[in-house]
Amino acid sequence: MTQQQRIALDEMLRSLPLDLGGDVAEQRELFAQMMETIPLAEDVVTERGELGGVPVVAVGIDGASARGTILYFHGGAYTIGAAELSAGLASELARRSGTQVVSVEYALAPESPYPAAVEDAVAAYRGLRERGVPARDIVLAGESAGGGLALAAAMAIRSAGMDAPAGIYVASPWVDLTLSGRSATTKAAVDPSVTAEGLARRARDYAGEADLRDALISPVFGDFSGLPPLLVQVGGNEVLLDDATRLAARAAAHQVSVRLEVTPGVPHVFVAFAGMLDEADAALTHAAGFIRTVLDTRPG
To answer: Are the C-beta atoms of 97 and 292 separated by less than 8 Å?
Structure first.
């Protein structure tokens, strides 16, 4: 059954009109139209708000008690996507981990290039803390570019002298905007949705004139010392596979507790396809377990 699921998902992704390297305005509209055709479960509750002056969308499960908060950063190569459009994946994390998810509407490039997104991420974290949420009750999370942003935010939070969150969960993270990983070419034929060429265009939109090797732009080149436990999940059919494997190796070299889970034969951000792909459900169950563990074991 799972092989049939993988083939069907691959075919679906290859048929989509999205072009990561295409006109940003057009891709935003196409992505929004696509995501709006996917209904949320009836018990998912969303509420707009703000943290630290940054717009956010709180995502939870109606009637469920929540312990802990996931501060979530959506993907979209720093140029497309929106907090509310990520509510499907966010709600799966909320349901499975027993937490509330707060998805951050961080500023997008090219209108707001680096460091705007990082500043918004840190402001949202600071806003959550100022509302009385202890750092030990917060997990940073994100997919694709949002995974990179979660890591950059953790580094910036450390530099600002704030207490670290309990943990970090990233799915298919984009953490090397120089695209120096071998998988950018070796996985090109099997990745149905992402191209190195498209990412390169979006990388320059985001970074502007800044150095792409800056740790807050490409966290894989950064210092992970003192960061909290990290879970990295990635598919075997991704041009960003090496981003994930090198990220895990770098974190481990800096004595961070890190777990890397590579799922063979699945595409970029495969965890977004829970209910369609058995591997997605399994990965989200693992992620929820990680989130619960770090929230339950972080010292007070």
So the answer is: yes
Total number of residues shown for the chain: 300
273 to 132, 166, 225: CA distances (angstroms): 34, 26, 33
Distance in angstroms (rounded) separating the CA atoms of residues 36 and 28: 12
- The 3-state DSSP composition of the chain as helix, strand, coil percent (nearest 5) reads 45, 15, 40
CB atoms within 10 A of CB 291: 23
**What is the structure's pLDDT at 300?**
54
pLDDT at 1 over 80: no
Residue with tokens 């459009």: 85
Catalytic residue ranges: 144, 238, 268
> If DSSP codes are grouped into helix, strand and coil, which group holds residue 130?
helix
Within 10 A of 27 (CB to CB), how many other CB atoms are there? 22
- Distance separating alpha carbons of residues 59 and 27, to the nearest angstrom: 25
The residue type found at 275 is G
Rounded CA separation 122/133 (Å)? 14
70-93 pLDDT, tens digit per residue, is 999 999 999 999 999 999 999 999
Express each pLDDT in 129-161 by its tens digit.
999 999 999 999 999 999 999 999 999 999 999
Q: Work out the end-to-end distance of the chain between its first and last CA atoms, rounded to an integer number of angstroms.
A: 45
Residue 139's beta-bridge partner residues?
A: 70, 167
The domain 2-297 is classified under which CATH number: 3.30.70.20, 3.40.190.10, 3.40.50.300, 3.40.50.1820? 3.40.50.1820
pTM, whole model, 2 decimals? 0.97
